[in-house]
């Protein structure tokens, strides 16, 4: 340890104070707090522009259109992922209640062993076999309870199975000590659960798809249901489920999507990503728009129901339907696609319910006579609730929750990770790069000085590091008057922004006293380019939810983008003579932690990496009740490696946690 005189310490303290007194540590030549989002949206727009080019060619002939449809299905299967093997449904009808003109059965089945699904089956009076439809519920916490649509359909000869989705009705997953919902609502729960699903290579969309697919399996077992006349419909979150379901469910003959259908490109630009159950990572890079799930179902009949005053963008709905009408016309089924617009807002009021029942009567019963709702029937709650406690995860001691399922799956994947890591370094390295959604930079950086502040015992330099196709990286370099021969170039990444480092006098003293060169930088989405908090809904528990989700959408996880930023900084530090002869040390905290680990693994020029207050394993994110996990999302990463695996492969002692 060096010895300093009192005068020297005082001088250094004053010197550092003058640095922190500067107050403005911005290094970019511009200020635009939507910059990162604008950058990401350029990829969104390009991907959907490419889609439109392909679609314009497809509508030139029936053959081309069918080929386009089949290729869409392949791309959808690819991002949806693999499904488990089917096992016994173990379905039980718990009770039948007779209503005027129809009856209601309370049903429980297992879509996977110990994953209990609760449902109500509304059956018309008589013996059948009846045409039938799934009703997929909107985002209300009540789930299947009180379906006016199912009543109207049953009174008009069509059976309806209303299924509780994950996180709603009797299938709430995140419960407090009293067995009540632990979050503000289903959209929050869906989003929190989706993080764990993503890490194991799936999505909440896929889990809901599987449950609904198995509900159709159940309908096919019943003698009173005509399995050749099946459909599906839903509103809002149920419209979402319907769209995702029909894309790959060949057994369905008709569908209706209400208060969900629009254009993803417009939604992402106007209001940003929505709930975790409404996105699959890679949709944009697969060139899949919302209308494309209907295309996958074509030329089967689909009714799109919109409200003129819905928060779901109406112009996007009109444009999406216009695209579908061209496709259906090429396929010789122009009457099988229709948009019904109501003078209403969100959801399914009476006029929409009547249009729904008329549509299904037309296509499942060959009867286009308009249906009118003349009476409202309310089924008692006791005739709809299937469990004794109101929740499957408290009613059944052996019930496996979604978070438990993800944790079990991650544990099972450990053997896959071990096998993967035994492969050659080149194979492992390339897979890491692919999962990050990056290419190792080929373009050279451009370094632009944006300011310099000379001091008595230091110099402060501001730079923006530019690389074609990437966000500029702002950084501030503080070089002591006397850099120690063994001093390091310390690259500091603080998730609170570089200002948090530069305004901390005690911390600055430490670097200057040791004769180290300090480089404080903001990677994209932090500091100078942090997204406004007001544009990230607090219900999602993520301070950068919209940019993290858009990054997943376009196939470029936010971790990977930030790794590229670090590589740009290392290129700068390795090429400027001011830093020659000094080893690069990377210090990071919080959300920067996993980024630093990946960068150290990929770039040996980083001699040492220290991390604090960050996750040490992706498995920590399988626990859904925590904030900001989407900053750490790499789809399917736990099939291949965990953070500790990269730390080991980076070399003994090169990457360490300091806490």
CATH architecture of the largest domain: 3-Layer(aba) Sandwich
* Fraction of helical residues: 25-40%
**How big is the Rg?**
28 Å
In CATH, what is the class of the largest domain? Answer: Alpha Beta
CATH topology of the largest domain: Rossmann fold
Total strand count, please? Answer: 17
What's the mean pLDDT score?
A: 95
Question: Could you give the distance between the termini?
Answer: 23 Å
The fourth-level CATH homologous superfamily of the largest domain is Alpha/Beta hydrolase fold, catalytic domain
- How many helices? The count is 21
Strand order of the largest sheet: 1-2-3-5-4-6-7-8-9
Indicate the overall shape: elongated
Class by helix and strand content?
alpha/beta
- Count of discrete domains: 2
Strand content: 15-25%
The major sheet is characterized as: 9 strands, mixed
Low-confidence stretches are: 1-18
Key attributes of the depicted protein:
single chain, 659 residues, alpha/beta, Rossmann fold, 2 domains, 9-stranded mixed beta sheet, disordered N terminus
């Amino acid at each position: 340890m060096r010895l300093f005189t009192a005068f020297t310490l005082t001088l250094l303290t004053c010197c550092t104070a003058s640095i922190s007194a500067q107050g403005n540590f911005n290094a970019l030549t511009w200020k635009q707090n939507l910059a990162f989002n604008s950058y990401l949206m350029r990829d969104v727009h390009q991907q959907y522009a490419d889609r439109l080019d392909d679609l314009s060619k497809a509508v030139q002939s029936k053959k081309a259109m069918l080929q386009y449809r089949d290729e869409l299905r392949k791309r959808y299967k690819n991002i949806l992922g693999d499904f488990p093997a089917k096992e016994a449904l173990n379905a039980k009808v718990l009770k039948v209640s007779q209503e005027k003109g129809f009856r209601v059965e309370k049903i429980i089945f297992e879509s996977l062993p110990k994953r209990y699904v609760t449902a109500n089956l509304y059956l018309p009076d008589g013996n059948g076999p009846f045409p039938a439809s799934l009703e997929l519920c909107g985002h209300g916490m009540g789930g299947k309870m009180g379906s006016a649509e199912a009543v109207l359909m049953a009174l008009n000869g069509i059976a309806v199975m209303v299924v509780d989705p994950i996180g709603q009705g009797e299938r709430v997953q995140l419960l407090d000590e009293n067995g009540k919902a632990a979050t503000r609502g289903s959209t929050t729960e869906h989003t929190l659960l989706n993080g764990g699903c993503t890490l194991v290579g799936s999505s909440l969309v896929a889990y809901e798809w599987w449950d609904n697919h198995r509900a159709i399996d159940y309908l096919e077992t019943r003698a009173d249901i005509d399995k050749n006349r099946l459909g599906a419909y839903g509103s809002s979150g149920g419209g979402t489920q319907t769209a995702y379901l029909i894309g790959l469910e060949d057994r369905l003959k008709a569908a209706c999507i209400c208060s969900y259908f629009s254009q993803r490109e417009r939604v992402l630009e106007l209001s940003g990503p929505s709930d975790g159950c409404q996105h699959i990572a890679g949709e944009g890079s697969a060139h899949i728009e919302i209308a494309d799930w209907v295309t996958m179902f074509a030329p089967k009949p689909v009714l799109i129901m919109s409200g003129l005053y819905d928060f779901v963008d109406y112009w996007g709905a009109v444009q999406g339907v216009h695209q579908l009408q061209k496709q259906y016309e090429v396929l010789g089924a122009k009457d099988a696609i229709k948009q019904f617009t109501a003078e209403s807002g969100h959801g399914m009021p009476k006029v929409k319910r009547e249009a729904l029942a008329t549509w299904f009567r037309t296509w499942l019963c060959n009867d286009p006579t308009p249906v009118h709702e003349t009476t409202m029937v309310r089924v008692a709650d006791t005739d709809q609730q299937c469990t004794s406690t109101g929740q499957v995860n408290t009613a059944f001691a052996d019930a496996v929750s979604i978070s438990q399922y993800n944790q079990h799956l991650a544990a099972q994947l450990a053997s896959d990770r071990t096998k993967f890591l035994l492969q050659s370094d080149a194979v492992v390295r390339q897979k890491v790069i692919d999962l990050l959604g990056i290419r190792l930079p080929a373009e050279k950086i451009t370094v632009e000085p944006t300011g310099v502040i000379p001091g008595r015992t230091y110099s402060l330099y501001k730079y923006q590091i530019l690389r074609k196709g990437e966000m500029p990286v702002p950084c501030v370099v503080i070089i002591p008057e006397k850099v120690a021969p063994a001093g390091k170039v310390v690259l500091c990444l603080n998730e609170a922004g570089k200002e948090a480092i530069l305004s901390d006098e005690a911390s600055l003293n430490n670097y200057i006293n040791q004769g180290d060169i300090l480089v404080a930088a903001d990677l994209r989405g932090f500091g100078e380019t942090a997204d406004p908090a007001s544009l990230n809904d607090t219900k999602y528990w993520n301070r950068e939810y919209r940019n993290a989700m858009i990054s997943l959408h376009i196939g470029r996880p936010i971790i990977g983008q930030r790794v590229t930023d670090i590589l740009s900084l290392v290129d700068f530090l390795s090429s400027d003579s001011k830093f020659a002869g000094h080893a690069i040390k990377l210090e990071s905290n919080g959300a920067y932690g996993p980024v630093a680990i990946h960068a150290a693994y990929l770039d040996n020029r980083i001699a040492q990496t220290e991390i604090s207050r960050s996750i040490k394993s992706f498995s920590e994110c399988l626990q859904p009740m925590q904030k900001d996990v989407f900053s750490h999302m790499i789809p399917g990463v736990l099939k291949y490696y965990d953070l500790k695996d990269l730390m080991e492969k980076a070399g003994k002692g090169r990457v360490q946690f300091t806490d």
